[in-house]
Every structure is written in structure tokens, then in C-alpha cells.
Amino acid sequence: KHTVNLEHKRADVRVKPVALEMGVKFELHASISGKKINVSEVPELSLPEDWVRDKLELNFYKSEQGGGGEVESVNYNKQSRTAVITFLNP
């Protein structure tokens, strides 16, 4: 339970848990060469293409200790279910 002061008025508020939707988990196949990773067999998802690009970027950006790093670009082709992730550094 918390009390919040808003313009000389007090409001008592309570924290309640919020149910979140389950994330989408999938497996990727990748071949690595220099600054680029070629990703194949990207699953068909009912997500907008820009969301899939963002998910791919985040996946490879946050896996820095596993060979990822800062992403320069993500070229995703929904029809062929492939993507090319280009990094700023090799």
C-alpha cells in the first residue's frame, strides 16, 4: 500500500499483479561470417515484420558474451524465412 501526493491531495494506492501474455520462443539456425550472421528457418509468426526484425536484433544484441554485439542492421525476408544480421564490429 502506498500514498501518493498529487497537488495537495493524497491518494492511497495498492499494487496488484498484472498477468502478462507469454512471450514467443523459437529456434533459429545461423551461419556466421565476419560481421554478418545468416539466419534461416525463422518460424512463421503472427507478428508484424518490424516486430520480428526487432526480436532478432534484440536476440543477437543481448548475446554479446556468445558472439553477438551491437547490431548495425537486420534484413528480414518473411517469404524465405531468412534474415541477415550485420554487426558494427566483427
TrEMBL record:
InterPro entries attached to this UniProt entry: Nmi/IFP35_dom, Nucleotide-bd_a/b_plait_sf
Pfam families linked to this entry: NID (PF07292)
GO cellular component terms attached to this protein's record: cytoplasm
Transmembrane segments: none
Domain NID residues, every copy: 1-73
Superkingdom, natural source: Eukaryota
The protein, known as: NMI protein
